[in-house]
């Protein structure tokens, strides 16, 4: 990977830019440029054929000034320490921008989960958990799912950690299955949060493609109940045209939620390629097709696309929901969306960001657009600690309150400082983390 695409260098550049705008003290800026703690583990796993295979994994705790560290665990062949560092930094800014009491962390294991059996994945997960167990825990650092990890992975982590402790510790992870203390609404939370901020952007920018009906009472959105039977927020997407890259947890659910609300999803993709139907895709049918064939490609009635072509289709809203560095200086000029909502972490490089800004495209940055996942993870953690569980309505309503407030905080900063939305979001977040550090003081 070139230095230009190194996610950690990108994360540092993003911080450097706002440190100047915020007049951060030099020492605080320097402190925030590096992770607080990094653990690398090399560990053996017994494979199904009897071989013993060595794996490498990481857990990076970037900053804990605002609370325990929080962040997902990724299983992917391209996992690297710099990628995990960047993702941990972005978690720090994300928890700050939505104002939940966490710091940021991330983990990853270099592996190809697509080529491993369930038994191998379970043994790898349990051994990795044991290796990182000295630094995780409900008060210290709480993992969650990320790319190619899911509720089952979290159940194995929770069980392994609990075995080490000698009692059940449901608060050690979020994104757990419901029957062991997971939260209603967690599985859809990243996508739902993304949908909420996309709706805000559609309503509050010049692209008023939605009905102008006021769907929320601004002052009371925290405790105003949603309309009956409407867990999504009480509004419609009125044929907004949407393309989604990545068809996993974040992407496929965003596509489903938006199409259920009247949006027209014309293109989606996964790691094997994309599909396009300008009249709109039946997302339930695409989900079934992907479940039976392993890819969205070959879906009847749609044209197949090259993997990255989905980014360049003409649409109102483009949702990158796969991996980092998808929109680069090579393809940014070809993006035809009015709004790019970053459900993925780090999908746009800084050079591409500049190009999109110059083209007048609104980019809702990752630390805001995909913060719904960690927000409902926070709700799950609270429920696990209290052993008291909320209804899905409560979860979705509180999520909406937090996402809309964060959107307003960020756009407020953008207006005051005359900056783009990524810079505005970073300014809100970095200032909050810096304030926490200053208030706590530097130990000793
Ligand atoms: P996932 O494993 O459920 O899905 C990933 C999807 O991306 C799969 O459909 C895969 O086929 C596709 N993909 C992989 N490489 C691709 C490529 N080159 N082109 C097109 N598609 C490709 O993962 P996820 O949880 O949906 O995570 C996706 C992104 O969202 C990541 O950046 C992750 O960090 C971010 N995110 C996820 C959550 C969450 O709660 N799951 C929260 C915040 C951010």
Which helices and strands appear, and what pairs or packs with what?
Elements: H1 7-21, H2 26-32, E1 37-46, E2 52-63, E3 69-76, H3 81-97, E4 104-110, H4 118-132, E5 141-145, H5 151-165, H6 186-204, E6 241-245, H7 249-260, E7 264-270, E8 273-276, H8 283-293, E9 303-305, E10 317-320, E11 339-341, H9 350-358, E12 362-364, H10 366-369, H11 372-386, H12 392-417, H13 421-440
Parallel strand pairs: 3-4, 3-5, 6-7, 6-10, 10-11, 11-12
Antiparallel strand pairs: 1-2, 2-4, 7-8, 8-9
Helix pairs in contact: 1-3, 1-13, 3-13, 4-5, 6-7, 6-11, 6-12, 11-12, 12-13
The structure holds nicotinamide-adenine-dinucleotide.
Summarize the structure in words.
By secondary structure, this protein is α/β, with parallel strands linked by helices. It folds into two domains: 37-180, Leucine Dehydrogenase, chain A, domain 1 (Rossmann fold, 3-Layer(aba) Sandwich), CATH 3.40.50; 189-372, Rossmann fold (3-Layer(aba) Sandwich), CATH 3.40.50. 42% of the residues lie in helices and 16% in strands. It is built from 13 helices and twelve strands. The protein has a seven-stranded mixed beta sheet, with helices on both faces. Strands 1-2-4-3-5 form a five-stranded mixed beta sheet. Helix 3 links the parallel strand 3 (69-76) and strand 4 (104-110). Helix 6 packs across helix 7 (249-260) and helix 6 crosses helix 12 (392-417). Mean pLDDT is 92; it is low at 206-230. The protein binds nicotinamide-adenine-dinucleotide. Nicotinamide-adenine-dinucleotide binds at residues 145-148, 190, 245-251, 269-271, 307, 321-323, 343-345, 370, 373.
């Amino acid at each position: 990977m070139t230095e230009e695409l190194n996610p950690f260098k990108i994360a540092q550049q993003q911080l450097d830019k706002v440190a100047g705008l915020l007049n951060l003290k030099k020492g605080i800026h320097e402190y925030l440029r590096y992770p607080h703690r990094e653990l690398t583990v090399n560990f053996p796993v017994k494979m199904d054929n009897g071989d013993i295979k060595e794996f490498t994994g990481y857990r990076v705790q970037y900053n804990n000034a605002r609370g325990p560290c929080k962040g997902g665990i990724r299983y992917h062949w391209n996992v690297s320490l710099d990628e995990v560092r960047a993702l941990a930094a972005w978690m720090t800014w994300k928890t700050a921008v939505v104002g939940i009491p966490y710091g940021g962390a991330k983990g990853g294991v270099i592996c190809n989960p697509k080529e491993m059996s369930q038994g191998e994945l379970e043994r790898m997960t349990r051994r990795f958990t044991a290796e990182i167990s000295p630094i995780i825990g409900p008060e210290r650092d709480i993992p969650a799912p990320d790319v190619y990890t899911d509720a089952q992975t979290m159940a194995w982590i929770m069980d392994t950690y609990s075995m080490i402790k000698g009692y059940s510790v449901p608060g050690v992870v979020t994104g757990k299955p419901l029957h062991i203390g997971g939260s209603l609404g967690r599985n859809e939370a990243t996508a739902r949060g993304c949908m909420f901020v996309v709706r805000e952007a559609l309503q509050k920018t010049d692209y008023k493609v939605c009905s102008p009906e006021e769907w929320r009472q601004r002052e009371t959105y925290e405790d105003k109940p949603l309309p009956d039977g409407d867990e999504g927020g009480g509004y419609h997407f009125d044929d907004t045209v949407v393309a989604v890259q990545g068809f996993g947890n974040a992407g496929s659910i965003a596509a489903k939620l938006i199409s259920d609300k009247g949006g027209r999803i014309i293109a989606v993709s996964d790691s094997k390629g994309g599909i396009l139907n300008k009249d709109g895709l039946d997302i339930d049918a695409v989900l079934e097709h992907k479940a039976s064939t392993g890819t969205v490609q070959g879906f009847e009635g749609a044209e197949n696309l090259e993997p990255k072509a989905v980014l360049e289709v003409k649409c109102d809203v483009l949702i990158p929901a796969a991996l980092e560095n998808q929109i680069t200086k090579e393809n940014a000029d070809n993006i035809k969306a009015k709004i790019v909502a970053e459900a993925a972490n780090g999908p746009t490089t800084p050079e591409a960001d500049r190009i999109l800004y110059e083209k007048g495209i609104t980019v809702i940055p990752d630390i805001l657009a995909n913060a719904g996942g960690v927000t409902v993870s926070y709700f799950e953690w609270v429920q696990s600690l209290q052993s008291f569980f909320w209804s899905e309505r409560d979860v979705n309503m509180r999520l909406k309150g937090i996402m809309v407030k964060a959107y307003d905080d960020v756009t407020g900063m953008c207006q005051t400082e005359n900056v783009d939305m990524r810079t505005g979001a970073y300014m809100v977040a970095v200032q909050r983390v810096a304030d926490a550090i200053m208030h706590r003081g530097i130990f000793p």
